[in-house]
Structures are given as C-alpha cells and as structure tokens.
Design a protein that fits this description.
Elements (H helix, E strand, L loop, with lengths): L1 H16 L4 E2 L4 E2 L8 H8 L14 H19 L24 H4 L2 H9 L15 H14 L3 H26 L2 H13 L1 H7 L5 H16 L6 H16 L8 H13 L6 H26 L3 H13 L6 H14 L5 H17 L1 H5 L1 H18 L13 H22 L13 H5 L2 H36 L3 H13 L4 E4 L2 H4 L6 E3 L8 H8 L3 E5 L8 H5 L6 H11 E10 L10 E8 L14
Parallel strand pairs: 3-4, 3-5
Antiparallel strand pairs: 1-2, 5-7, 6-7
Helix pairs in contact: 3-8, 5-6, 6-7, 7-8, 7-10, 8-19, 10-11, 10-12, 11-12, 11-13, 12-13, 15-18, 16-19, 16-21, 18-19, 19-21
Length: 603
Amino acid sequence: MIWKSLGRWVICLRLAIANVRLEGFPFDIQGVPARITPSDMQSEERQSPDHKPPERAEPPLLRWLHIGAWVLVALFFLIRFIDLDADFIHEKEYSRDGVLYTDEGWYANNAIHYFQSGEWHYDGDLNFAVNLPTLQVMHAVSFAIFGVNIDAARLTILFSFTVLLMLMYVFVRKWTDKWTALLAVAIVSWNFFFLLFSRFAIAEIPMAMFACVGFLLGYFSKGKLGWLFAVLAGIAWAISFYTKTSALFALPILSAIVFFGNWSPEIKWAAFAKVGAMVAGAAAVIGLHTMFLAIPYRDDFLAFQTINVGMRAQASPGVVIEFFFQMIDKMRLIDPILYRVIKWLPLALVLLVKDYRRNPLVWFCVAWLGIYTVMFSFYVNLKPRYWAPLFVPIAMLIAVTYRQVFVLFNAYWPERKRAFEQGSSIWKKLSHPRVLGWVNAVVLVLFSAALAGSLVRNVGDTADYFDEKDDSFEQMAKDVRERMGDDEYLLGHFTTKLALYVDVLPINDRYATGPLDDRLKRYRPHWLITEDTINRPDSKEEKENNYPGSREDRLVTLKQFYEPIEEVAVYDVFSNYKDYRIHLYKLTPRPELGWDGESPPLP
C-alpha cells in the first residue's frame, strides 16, 4: 500500500518534470493560444506531455527585442571588469560590521605561497588549502596565466559567475520559456549586490557554480548514461563542498533530483541505486581528500574547523530561531524592491494556482532558499556575502513568478467584461473571470513596476559605486612594500590579501596551526601590520567566542622577541570603516637572539 501511494506521488512529480515547455512571447504555454480562457487551460492539462504542437514563427520585432535584451545583459556583465582591483564598497552595511575584508587572501593563500616560494604549504601557518583546496587550485591556474595579483584572483570568481549565469538560463529554460530564462539572467546581471560579490575573490560564487553543475548532472542521471551522470553529480557536489562547506545545503536537493528523476513503479530499486551511485562519487572525493590532506596535515585540518565552525556554530534553539528571522530580515539588502514581492506573491500562487505549484523549478528554488537559510541559522554570523548564493534561486523564482502572473493575465483579462451570474455565492463572484481579470491586471502592473524600479535602483547604485570607487588598499600595499625594502616576510592578520597586490611573503599572526613564537622563530619577520594599534584589547565578541591568538597574547609574545616595536606608518583604508586605522610596525629583534637582522631563506 505504501509503495503504491509513493509510486503515485513520484509519477505525478515525473510528469511535472516532463511538463510542457513554454515557447514564444508573451509567455505562451505550448499548444495554448496567446490569449487563453480558463477552459483552454483545463483542456491543456489533459494533453499528453509528449504532445508537440507546430512551432509558430516569432515576429521580427520580438526577435530584435530578444537580441536587444541580451545586449543589455552583456553590458551589465562586462561592467564587472571595470577597475577590477578597486576597493570593495565603502558602505559598512555590505560588510556587516565594517571590518576590513581579509578573506580574499585566505582563500588564495596556498596558491600565493606556491608561486612565491615553490612550496604550497607553510608549516605552522594558516593553510586553507588543506580544508578547501578547490578555490586554491582555481586561483593557481589563474595565477599561472595572469601572475599573482588581485585581478587574477577576482577573474577566478568572474569565470564562476559566467558559468553560473549559463546554468541558471538552462534551468529556467528547461521548465519555462526563453523569455523567462532571460529575465532571470537579467535580474542577476543588473543586481548591484551580486555585482559586488561576483567581482570579489571569495568562495560563495564558485561554490554555487559547482553545486549547480551537480544539479544539472543529477538531472541527466535518468538517461542512458545515468549511472555515470549520477557518479559525476556526486563528484561535483564534493568539489562544491571543498570550495565552501556551506555546500551542505545542496546535498539533500541533489539527492531528491536523482531519486525522483529515476523513480519507477516497475523498478523501485533504480532510484535508490542511483542515489547510492551519487553518494559513492562524493565519497570517493572525500576519501581522497582525507587520505592526502586531512590525515597528513591534521593540525591544519583541525585549526580550520575551530576557526570556521567551532567558534560560531550554535545549538541553542532560541539563538537559532532568532538568527533565522534576522537572516530573513537582513536579506532585503539583496534587492529591497523585489524582496518585498518575493516574500508574499509566490506563496499566494502556490495556494491558488495549480500550474505554478506543479512547476518543479518553483520547489527547487524554495528548497534552496529554505535549506540554506535554516543551515545558516545555526551559524551565528550575518555577513551579507554569505547570502550571495541565495540570489540565484531568488532571481529564478522571481522570473517564474512573473511568467505565471502573465499567463493568468492572458487567461482572465479577455473575460473581464462578462456579467456576474445572478444568485451566485460570494466566492463564485470573487472567482469570476471578470474579477480575476482585473486582479491579475493590477498584480501584473505592480510586478512590472517593481522590476522597473529594481532596474533603476540597481543601475543607480552601480553608477555611484564606479563613480566613487577607490584604491586605498592598493596604495597602502605599495607603501608598505616600499618601506620594507629588501625584507620579504610580513606578519599580520590580513597579509595574504596584501600579497595579492605586492610581493610579500605573508605570515598570519593570529589564526594558525601552531603558537606564534614558533612562527617567529621559523620565519623571523621584521614587519607587522595590524588593525588599530598593537595595544588594542580583544573585543567582547572575540573573548566570548574564544578566538584563537588573542591580541593580548600576541603583544606579550612579540615583546619576548623584539625591542623596540616601532610604529612607522598609519593608513586610512576603505574610508575608515570603523574608528580605527591600519598600523605598520617595524620589529627589531633582540640582540641576544642572534638573528643579525636577517630573515631566513625561503622554505
């Protein structure tokens, strides 16, 4: 009985996945006239999914409109390459608390090490490649082509963004039409929030790109080469996971895609077997990582777990619920106008419109948004860049929702002039085509206005950013390099990012696998760069979360090896996010150490 019931549900889902494709404009359902009536929609539902009506020739005006829309998308895309080495935006709301961004260097540190010294791993230092090797490899390829610089690091992300746009178009095109797919791509292209983080060398965009590659491979697991595609889907997910651990959200979605895509009442084991093949592919990558990285470099592996998860993850239900609602509220930063639309309209359409809730793409987007948001509710950190992957399902859901509103408008607007039936109930009157025609017309106008407002607002924000962009970080890096003279090692929390602008060998002074004194003895740095003065105490947050390498401990350790510690420069970077600035110190080794003022040779 259970198998029969489950079988019926899976058959319905597979019919939905194989649902008719939309062709032409404006958002015409295949086989349904441009203007349809409710009765037409009911007859369409009875058609076979394999029914293919004759294709209609598209008017020349629409073809030129389609080409023009793609030209605009291309222009929005190319804007990202303007002054790629410029500072991140000055407004503190995009960095949560206004702190200096350092992660660009962290996600490239081992690739930087390799091209600077020939060694990919620095003993005792922070080695991100042990836990997250994917982006390090991608950066290494880019550095091999363009050299070690910030442009090369950010080009890696722009490449991932390009692939992500293509995958978005494929997903939306599969279950809707080319105009809806174009709208989804356009929304992402013009969005200012996504522009900022698609030209910023962080891991969120590549992670989303590899996750979407896995989703596409999982969809093809039902074909003749299904077993191969299932294994490749698992491998793609594992690569995504080793780009950014937040790719965990994609595993249940990928499993559902493979399972329901291969379910058959006749061969029930096939769906489970394909999911097993997918898991085997992921397990193979995880096994190789464990064998060659996690076990041989255990200290690095555990240090990253402490920094990335241990200090932040929460299990308290009250804290989790609080952060869940905070995330929902703060995500309006992605697009304040369209965010208001997406909060209520899809829910209304799911409850009221059968075609909308039968569209697999709707549930794919809802699952992505829901799982990702719940997962990050356990990770007590509200940095806006963590939400960048969410704009992919948001844009697709907005486009699909707009298409559904347009279809309903076409269905009911021609019927708006019909009279009400005499003696009918209030519900029948409210659901009458005349009422629905006007309701859908109002919704369509408001939705269109929201899209137009979003475009104008985001274009304005983009223009302001490029008009006011700065290169304060690059100027600071060049000045630091000039002051250092022949010295190579630079000690500091964000020195790996400085190494993307100038030729220095970065050593982290706080987050690392070993104590600071071991690193000082090994590398003998003569320069330190730090946020605020060296005497600034740890913040309340850092003390509560047990951040490794406290500032107080660092100062005590430094005084054991260096005297004097002399401040030589102060920098106002990124228009001074907070009330502190960046300070550069000259470290003079104590004479009894016998370091004679020289750093050791490269490792």
